[in-house]
Structure prediction request, 198 residues.
Amino acid sequence: MAIFKRGKKRDFGLRVKEAVWPSQGWRRTFHYYRHRIFRTGDSTYKITAGLAAGAAVSWSPFLGTHFAQAIFLSWLIRGNLLAGFIGTALGNPSTFPFMFWLSYKLGTFILGLAGFETEFAGGMDAAYLQGDSWAFLKYLFAHPLQLLLPLVIGGYLCAFLCWPVAYAVLYYPVRAARRAYRLQRLRLRRKKNRKNVR
Prediction:
């Protein structure tokens, strides 16, 4: 039995709350995850590839699957899985509107070139949506070409383009942070050794 194991498991709601707004504060959370990632001893490539994978899958319109997609993609390209998980932070309530708008526009443009009709059918207006709370989902699955397909095509194309850009942008900062972390750990070890000698 583990000594430091949590006696009572957190319920799902509390875990979601902690993920959205950590009780220990963002600065401490950042240092905790930084330590977790760099402690593994993974290369700069693995850490950067994982972060870029998480950033890339944030363009996917399937919101509930971003973590799973990030972990799978990180594993596929031999990136750091935890870094992939953290990289999904690119997709958040403040960035999703722009990301989905761009994905939709790109998707409709590509479908238009292929000769598909992507305009919304008549009857899909604000009054229709207000009259039935499930109207949007019903419409979405009844007319996938109008919204879902453009989002999927545009979103995954953006994801494909995002990975190399994110990797290029993050590589040198990650390398510098990794070196700084290793120097910090080395200084702490030397300090500890000096105390033990005394």
